[in-house]
Every structure is written in structure tokens, then in C-alpha cells.
Amino acid sequence: MFDAIIREISQRFGLGDKGQALIASLLALVFDPNSGGIAGLLEKFKQQGLGDIFSSWLGGASGTPAAISTQQVENVFGSSALNGIAKKLGIAPGTVLAAASAALPKIVGAVTPNGQLPSGIPAGVGGLLSSLGGGIGGIGAAAAASAAAATTRVTNAAEGAAAGGLGWLKWLVLAAIILALAYCVMTRTATAPAPSSATTSAPVKPAVPAVVQNAAADAKAALLALVPGKYTAADLVNALNQMAIHFDTGAANVSADSLDVLTAAAAAIKAAPAGTKVEIGGHTDNTGDPASNLQLSEARANAVRAKLIELGVAADSLTAKGYGDTKPVADNGTEEGKAKNRRMEFTVLP
User: Fold this and answer.
1) Cα–Cα distance, 147 to 124 (Å, whole number)
2) Average pLDDT of 308-312?
3) Helix 79-89 to helix 70-77 angle, to the nearest 10 degrees?
4) Average pLDDT over residues 183-202
5) Taking the domains of the chain in order of start, what are their residue ranges?
């Protein structure tokens, strides 16, 4: 039921085998009984003024499903829940946000094939649980085996007994299933066996080219040269834009060699004039699909924002936006030009 979604999201965001766990985690949020299940989720969307977006995702809806931004995803689910998923699965928070914005329309469409909200958890979710359960003592498999049957059976009983005050029974069962789902996802990630040191040697990390090292040193020097209380917001972004932030190929994970300069950037932003707000703009070259480039650029911008917040920058002083390949600063016809177009660009917000 979700194989195509898992495959697409995993490939687009470089998640590997974590893609399945991420989709399962998003399903847990969609059907969270503490929020009223998928019907409660619809109400959350309406409260945020996003009801039309959600309605466009329903399986029976006509037309193209409406897009949802990462900020809107965060507004609906809350940063705490999404950051919790990122931490448990070892995925950058920005990547979780971008992947969620891409996956949610497809997930909701898959569980509403007739355009109707399900009253329980669809059987396909049980299938996903089964695929997660093999490595943890069969807990996920057991939950999966009973999910569809138990949900259908108890939902019918609960609906029949609702007049007698037992309408809570349906959600009690849903809560148990959701807890099983969350346990399966988190435990599977946490207990993955470590590779044997006897048979596998650590790969040798390639040396960083001297020209890259020099550029990083220059950017760090420019940031450290800013004297607190004596520089403007414009001076700040001029220094920030000297940085070349690196990511894992095709993914949104900030590479370890960028941590040093980002630490200097965080210190400079924290010491900036009061009220300074900075946008982190993600840009790519024109290789590949424009829609995928837009998603990747937004994921990378969010990853940089998350790292700066982790380093102590106030969250409300930073925003992140992806521009994909729409604003090149060099010729995409050359490799040098493409390298210049793959960038993070900082601007001062009014």
C-alpha cells in the first residue's frame, strides 16, 4: 500500500532504509488517537486555515493535490513531535520536514481511496507494521496481524455501543495500535546491530581539497572579524554569504566539515543587532527534476536552520526557504557554474 511512497521519498531525500520508518512515523501522527485520529487531523488543518489543502489530498478528490510547505507541516504537527522523529531515526530535522511535506499528500490519498476518512486504521498500515516487526521479537508482526481484524471488529462494536456510552472503546483500541506502531519504529532503529569490526574496516574519509579549506578559513575569519555592537545586519549577511556549506551528495545532511564555520556563524548571528531576522535560502543547479530540486533546496535550508538553532541561535530569528534552481547566479552549462549555483544564500528580512 505504501511501497511506492516509501521508495519515492527514500530516493528523493537520500533516506535509505530509514524511509520506511519515517513513513510509519508519519502514519502514527496521522492516526494519533490523542488527536482524534485522521478526523482530528483534518480539524487541525482547518484550525490552521489549511482545510482546502487537506481536502485536495483525499483519494476521491479531483485535480492535483495541493502542496504544503514545511512551515505549515510544523504548524500542524508541532516542532516537538517532528524533532522527536528526527532524533529517533537519526535524520536531520529539516529533512524530516521536507520529506513530510512531500509524503503527507500521498499518505492521506492512499488511506482515503474513496474520498472518505476511515473510521479505523486501514489494513495497509498493519502490513507496514508487519514489515517492521521481524527484528524486535515479533511485536510489530503481532500488532500487524491483529490490526485490521481488531480495528474492524472493535470499531463495529464501539459504534453499536456508542448510544450506551461505550464510544470510547474504538479509540482505546486505536491507541494500542498506535503505541505498537511507535514502539516498532523507534525500537527497530535503536536496536539495529552494529557492523562487526572484525570484518569491516572504517572507510578512509577523503582529504578536503586545499582550496576548499582556504575558502572555509576565509569565511570563518570574516565571521570572527565582526565585532559585537559594531556591525550591522547587512555586514552579518555579507560575512555569512562567504560560507560554503557542504551536504552529503543528494541529501540534506550537513557534512561534518561545515560544523566549524557554522559554529562561527551561530556566534555572529547571536551577537547581531537586536531584532535581526535572517532568511536562509537554499539553491540548487538545474540537474534533475525541478520539483525535486525545490524539495532538496528547502530540506537543506531547513537543515542549516536546525543546525544553527542547535548551536544556540534563537529560532524566531531564522527562517528557511527553498528556491530550487530558479535563481542561478552562474551558467549551469559548466561544472564551475553549477557549483556556484548550489549554495545557501542569507538575506536580512525586514
Assistant:
1) 9
2) 93
3) 100
4) 45
5) 3-190, 210-349
